[in-house]
Design brief:
Mean pLDDT: 93
Number of helices: 4
CATH class of the largest domain: Alpha Beta
CATH topology of the largest domain: Glycoprotein, Type 4 Pilin
Distance between the termini: 8 Å
Helix content: 25-40%
Number of domains: 2
Structural class: alpha+beta
Oligomer: single chain
CATH architecture of the largest domain: 2-Layer Sandwich
Strand order of the largest sheet: 2-1-3-8
Number of strands: 8
Largest sheet: 4 strands, antiparallel
């Protein structure tokens, strides 16, 4: 499965940086399978900047795990290392990845832009990811999700609300809506 190249106009990350981050993700999963801890330094200062990111795993064309940090809490390379291991071993929707599965995994990384408040009519399917929040409830969907699912804008808004544990119409009834873009790349 070929991942979308990007959801933003111009790529922020070079081909070398993308390849390095994907290698970090794969090495992190391999180290986790062996019970080892991967120690590394960033390729460059750009990859040491704090950014939110998700690592998504697919096997045989199906989702196998996806974990991320929506807030920039660590340097990007460290975020990728941690989210790759979490997607492989801690995504509660799936059994942990086994050593026999490693070769068949296809990895995808989504590096997030900062979040900004957005009106529902400004949301562009395929460009924006969404976060809907109300009270203690919060749900996030990446920009590629509505494209993969064939959703229109209203369905995307409704499904983000559902993911937050809210009514599907919460986006039009006072829930906070924030959008972001993501640079998406994969193997």
């Amino acid at each position: 499965m070929k991942a979308p190249s990007a959801s933003i106009e111009a790529p922020e990350y070079s081909a070398e940086e993308r390849a390095w981050l994907l290698a970090v993700a794969r090495q992190a999963i391999a180290a986790g399978l062996k019970g080892e801890r991967l120690q590394l330094r960033p390729l460059n200062a750009h990859l040491a900047e704090h950014r939110g990111a998700f690592t998504t795993l697919h096997a045989r064309g199906r989702l196998r795990g996806c974990v991320g940090y929506i807030v920039a809490v660590r340097p990007l390379y460290q975020t990728i290392l941690e989210t790759a291991q979490a997607a492989a071993f801690e995504d509660t929707r799936f059994d942990p990845v086994s050593a026999g599965e490693l070769a068949e995994l296809e990895l995808e990384i989504s590096v997030l832009s900062p979040f900004r408040a957005m009106q529902p009519e400004q949301v562009v399917v395929g460009r924006h990811g969404l976060m809907v929040s109300q009270g203690l409830n919060r749900g996030v969907l990446l920009p590629q999700v509505p494209v993969e699912q064939g959703w229109d804008r209203e369905t995307f808004l409704a499904q983000t609300c559902v993911k937050a544990g809210l009514q599907p119409t919460a986006w039009s009834c006072g829930a906070a809506l924030e959008a972001f873009t993501a640079e998406i790349f994969g193997e």
